[in-house]
Amino acid sequence: MTAPDQDRFFEGLGAPFTGEELFDLVSDTVYFLKDAEGRYVAVNQTLVERCGKREKSELIGRTAEALFPAPLGERISAQDRAVVRDKRSLEAQLELHLYPGGQEDWCLTWKRAIADRDGRIVGLSGISRDLNSPISQQTELSAVSAALDHIAHNLDSPLRVEELAALAGLSAYQLDQRVRALYGLSAGQYIARARIELACHLLKETGRPISQIAQECGYGDQTAFTRQFRRSVGLAPRAYREVTGRT
Fold it and tell me: How far is 2 from 78, CA to CA, in rounded Å?
């Protein structure tokens, strides 16, 4: 299918395809579209029910802060603003969601910015998938979340699995097993992936020197960064920047 064929297909639809009717069928996944101000534009029925509402119209036009109890509502809105502002996706973020009806669930959340035909960011889309974890695992998931949050905010610093495990109150083996169960990666691989994802974002969205990006992503020298980036992405950082439009 060519790009013109694709355009004709979407132009021929009777209404914009939002995907919400498909996600209405998935009871363990929350789905949403929001505008640049963080207001819901489309939602699935699961989100409606989690918010203690009956109709989708009760959510449309409202923000997370207006629907979710503090501090969850504020945190979700802050995430939304960051995705829109920085054009950086949220990838499988481990979160505890507290819903208005008192329900409490651990989930993995993904969010991506949405651009219009001119490339302007006009909103975001996202899903949150329940982990359906036993009550006995709630404390451990909270500990793992603290370790992952530390990783996300300290990618420019040395990150040792043993120290992260101590932060979480787990052994290195226990932390590694929990991360493997969630992401299919070892804790060390998770850290490496997070650093490469940050590097990709900085190469695409900023004009910073590659040597500076290497430091911001926790690499002691540019050579080590280039070697790991090429191994993970298949391109050297400079070539990746050129391919993605940053020169």
Answer: 38
Q: How many domains does the chain have?
A: 2
d(CA 229, CA 232): 5
The CATH number of whichever domain residue 23 belongs to comes to 3.30.450.20
Model pLDDT for residues 68-124, shown as the tens digit of each residue: 888 888 989 999 999 999 988 999 999 888 777 677 788 999 999 999 988 899 999
Residues 69 and 160 in one domain: no
* pLDDT, position 175: 94
C-beta neighbour count of 207 within 10 angstroms: 9
Q: Whole-prediction pTM value?
A: 0.78
Per-residue model confidence as pLDDT tens digits over 124-135 = 999 999 987 654
Q: Token digits for 23?
A: 């996600």
CATH number of the domain at 160, please. Answer: 1.10.10.60
Helical ranges in 114-186 per DSSP H: 138-153, 161-168, 172-183
- Answer yes or no: do 57 and 141 share one domain: no
Distance CA 42, CA 23 (A): 11
